[in-house]
Design a protein that fits this description.
mainly alpha; 3 helices; about 0% strand
């Protein structure tokens, strides 16, 4: 079962993606980097949303 992905590793990866994007946006003050940080934040929040919450905002498992 070496191909099992740790949930903690997945959460850590999403958090690291957000932190890096947010730092980049603060350094560059670029709107494109800000948008990338916002998208990374959205992906982070998706990890903790219930399916009904995702449906409410127009997302589904297929798009996550």
């Amino acid at each position: 079962m070496n191909n099992v992905v740790s949930l903690h590793a997945h959460i850590d990866a999403r958090w690291s993606e957000y932190v890096a994007a947010q730092k980049r946006a603060q350094q560059t003050l670029s709107i494109d980097d800000g948008i990338a940080a916002a998208r990374a934040w959205s992906r982070w929040l998706e990890l903790f949303m219930r399916e009904d919450q995702k449906e409410f905002i127009g997302q589904s498992r297929a798009s996550a």
